[in-house]
Amino acid sequence: MSLTKRKNVTQKSIDRKHIINIQRRFLSLSEKRLLRMLDGFNLTQADSIKLLPLLFHVNHPMLPGYVDKSTPCGLPNYSPTALEKRIARTVSRSFKYESRAYLKFELAGLYLMGSIGTLGQSFRSDLDLWVCLGERLGAIEMTKLHQKTQLISAWMSSKGVELNCYLVYEKQFAQQAKKYLTKDSCGDTQNYLLLDEFYRTAVWLCGRTPLWWIIPPEENYREYANRLVKDKHIDALDWIDFGEVGQIPAAEFFSAALWQLFKAIASPYKSSLKLLMIEKYAREFPEVSLLSDQFKQMVYSQEDSIEKLDPYLMMFRAAESFLADQPARLSFLRRAFYLKAGSKIDLARDKPNNWRYQQMKFLVENWRWKQKTLDEYNSRSDWRIDTVIRERVDLVRELNHSYHFISNFARIQGALNQVSQQELVTLGRMLYATFEKRAGKIDRINTGIARDVQESAITLEMTGNHWRVFLGALRKNQLNNTAPVYTSESFFVALAWCVCNEMLNRNSTFQVYSDDEFYDFSLAAEIVRNLASLVRNSQPQIDETAFRESAKILTLGIFLNTETDPLQVEKESDIYSVANQEDGFCWGENRVNLFSQFDVFWVNSWGEYGSKKYSGEFAWIEFFFDYRQVITNQEDKIQLFAQQIPNLAKHKKRLFKMLHQWNRLRLDSRRKQRTNRYLMSYGSQFLLIDFFETQVEYKSFRYAKQLLTGLSNHLKEPIQYFHDDNLDLPAIIIRLLNKPAEVDYQCFILQTAQNSFQVVIKDPAGNFFYQVHSGVSREQLVNHYQQFYDGMLHQLGNWNTPMPYLMFWYADISYEDNARLQRIKDSHQDLANQYSAILAIAVRNTEDKVRYDLYIDEEVFRYQDFGELVYRKLAQFVLGKRQSQRQYPIFITNIDLSSVSQGVRVMDLLRHKRVIEQKLANALSKLTRH
User: Fold this and answer.
1) Residue 439 lies inside a defined structural domain of this protein
2) Which of 17, 238, 267, 690 has the fewest CB atoms within 10 Å, measured from its CB?
3) For residue range 218-269, what is the model confidence (pLDDT) as tens digits?
4) H or E element in which residue 18 lies
5) How confident is the model at residue 834 (pLDDT cuts 50, 70, 90)?
6) Does residue 232 form part of some domain?
7) Cis preceding-peptide flag for 286 (omega within 30 of 0)
8) Do 500 and 558 have their domain in common?
């Protein structure tokens, strides 16, 4: 759909003199703006700019930009001036220009565009150069020409001029060529808006002139252009035809707004102005009054005032007109324009020879600004971070306002589906990385607002559970009357925020107020030094290619013990343990965990900074899951920092060995469809990690007995045990964990003292059962477990399938931890006449929890009748039957779980048996004490 009214085709005569006059007006305007632009550079820089036409016209090995003799070059209607030749000889004394006939000019023209030569040009403005081509070149030629532009840009950079070159061919706007985003290009997101900007801001340097110049505003562009060529009023080879800006799709406003939002990261004020112009266009849609059309109309109306034809001032006036009834946004627009221009106005002074100063002074006087306001803006280069924070609030509010308006406009116009999804994703990621707040991300505040926010000193104060950051070295009594610039939940993040926002340098000092003596100047200085090193050495090259992929961690720093000194007790006692210094998780005689608390800091490929705190027993497993991809593929990207830990390199090696083992177990469990169970000592505790096929679970245990008992939780899939080299368990237990599963059940009876035993059972799937018994003999245990196992066979057995045997092993570990295991020969005895059989039948109570009814001889003790006293009742009954005064435990001989569980297995029954026997042992102990 045409977005402007179709213009009628007129048949009035075309005046050749009029064409020449119009062309001269545009050329005169270009020359005036070029002179104004050059006035902002020193003599050397101005000479290098003047040399651009010659550098693109020839390939000379002694001049900047030389690739080879076949690189595309040559500009029509151009011959170097005496001044340009003289400048060239200052670059290369041996250079001598030799005029030659070109069979074909491979370049069409050179144009500077943007804010150059306008009120918006500042001393930091870069130059955008369009290298125009009449037609597309081959891939090899385009590559060489691109190399030529890069070499010329590099040479200009050495002169202090930032030059961005763009290769533009004549038909690309008409054909809406699709291309990827580049550093300062917008791909297909701003096809017509870019052309609109070109027509009103372009400064012609040499070559063909735009056909657009000589198409009268009231004429139909294409029809009139055809008449000019057909009737031979012009030679088409003298002109470049990019087409008209008559049709701007609604989708382009949206995608262009996204692009300017991203550009606002580095140039917030410049992009804010352009966003307002886009908003102005969108508000007028579909009858858009283009600034390029207004610009042309003024030229045709014989307006020759360069001030009135200043395209940047025209853009400002257009935005100002529709913000007249929005004072807050109007105030921000004027501030943005003033700061973008960079003129420092003193109302008491005139500078008659400085047109930029005089024009800006005229504007601020009309805005009725006070000198106090101007002084604040004039000191922008000295703004501190608190001022930047306030300014950023206004900036983000304005950017959000523009974004929401344009987004709503695009939805109403149904334009979202017309935008390149690839570029929208890329731009969306750019904006997300810069403006989106999320947990763990450290916001960068100074994005193009102030030049330098470094502080010679900062003050940090701990208040409750928070840390507050103040500017300068303040006394304690000054803090209540001073507003902090940042508040964080941790000391580390407070410092990281300062580093990421470039507030600190190597000479910055720190004043720290905290009731905890651990936090002091030296700790702050050490953290800042290491953080600054990480940031400095991992600055990503942020361009559009980085955002075409998901963000990747580039650098990851682990900062150990940022909140406590794990060796504080040793230091206070002035006694350092010399035992067990190999394992940082259980260091020294006191088994101190040197790694129980740490902060992680990262930099990713999108230029984001972030941190996360880890502490407690599960700190490292949580870290593993958060960063396992980095651990697996980019270990060299991870650095470890610690001030209080000896032999850090050795501990780092130990840490990564553990993390890599975890990763292998995770992958192995998926590949082999089994559970890999990992055990390790962790300070004074134990950690159990189950790597299932599709998930991971982990628990901690205070004591070894609790850990071994916890291993009995039955797993329905095969299980393999693994452990840390420093696992603090008896050697024989570790042997049994490592022992491969057999086809039969293995029962290991380990004697720890007279009549005291540990019983370990491993099933064919590798499941592990553990129980402690006292007051019994080895023979009693063997016979009891055999009897219980036989009863299970009757309950669970499939008589068509042979059941595994229960094989017994014995070791006396009362003197030797790693005693040899001996096979116990089968000696099954009939215990029916020696002991009463006790049956437990599982039931569910009113709360749907599993409880037990107990049967012995002809007696029944129901949970419904006695509740938890059911165990005491059974114990009393057993004591009443015993003739011997010797104390020995009560064993359960059979269990029935059929009413509460399906698919019961041997390990399930053993686990329930242990629970019941422990409760009976407690009841028996209480009864025999009285």
Assistant:
1) no
2) 17
3) 999 999 999 999 999 999 999 999 999 987 888 888 888 888 888 888 889 9
4) helix 16-38
5) low
6) yes
7) yes
8) no
